[in-house]
């Protein structure tokens, strides 16, 4: 695996890189969801997405679920959905008024063409607004490779310093 510090550094680099995907967009309930970038780094996929809230009601994220599911939903019970757990999430904030961006890190996977990767972002309200981003296998196949050039281009990496004072 990849150390968490390196995963966080790479996630920040993905976060600060220019948007390369334009075709993965969903609009629902006054919300717009967009996949900005997909990168393959080692044994992981870094998926950067953003949400835009066009309503006056703040969006309070209850959960973000990642599923591998059938492309065509049938009424038969033979469809198989596999829930995936991200190994790292860059942004831990759960509430926003207008704009939100995040990077999810998933273990690298391949799946058949009749399956899709779905990001389901649901709200913690009675209205329960849910927005779904559907990523085709074709989009995963076109994920950019990742190299040190992106790190040089990244404008900002947070630096945390904790000061410890020893009392006598």
Write up this protein:
- The chain is mainly β.
- It is built from 3 helices and 11 strands.
- It has helices at residues 4-16, 137-141, 148-153, and strands spanning 25-28, 31-41, 44-53, 59-70, 82-84, 88-89, 95-96, 99-107, 115-123, 130-136, 144-145.
- Strands 1, 2, 3, 6, 8 and 11 form a 6-stranded mixed β-sheet that branches. Strands 4, 5, 7, 9 and 10 form a 5-stranded antiparallel β-sheet that branches.
- Mean pLDDT is 83; it is low at 159-164.
The separation of the N and C termini measures 42 Å
**Major sheet characteristics:** 6 strands, mixed
Number of helices: 3
Kindly name the structural category.
mainly beta
Outline:
globular
Helix content range: 10-25%
Mean pLDDT, nearest integer?
83
Can you count the beta strands?
A: 11
Give start-end ranges of low-pLDDT stretches: 159-164
Strand-residue proportion: 35-45%
Spell the H/E element sequence. Answer: HEEEEEEEEEEHEH
Q: Return Rg in Å.
A: 18 Å
Supply the key terms:
single chain, 168 residues, mainly beta, 6-stranded mixed beta sheet, 5-stranded antiparallel beta sheet, 3 helices, globular
């Amino acid at each position: 695996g990849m150390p968490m510090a390196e995963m966080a550094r790479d996630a920040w680099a993905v976060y600060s890189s220019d948007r390369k995907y334009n075709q993965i967009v969903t609009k629902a309930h006054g919300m717009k969801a967009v996949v900005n970038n997909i990168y393959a780094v080692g044994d992981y996929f870094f998926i950067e997405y953003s949400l835009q809230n066009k309503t006056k009601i703040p969006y309070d994220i209850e959960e973000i679920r990642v599923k591998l599911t059938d492309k065509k939903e049938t009424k038969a019970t033979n469809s198989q959905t596999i829930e995936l757990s991200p190994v790292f999430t860059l942004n831990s904030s759960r509430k926003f008024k207008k704009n939100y961006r995040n990077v999810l890190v998933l273990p690298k996977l391949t799946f058949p063409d009749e399956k899709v990767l779905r990001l389901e972002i649901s709200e913690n309200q009675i209205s329960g607004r849910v927005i779904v981003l559907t990523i085709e296998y074709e989009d995963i196949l076109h994920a950019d490779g990742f190299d040190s050039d992106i790190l040089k281009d990244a404008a900002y990496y947070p630096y945390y310093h904790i000061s410890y004072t020893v009392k006598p």
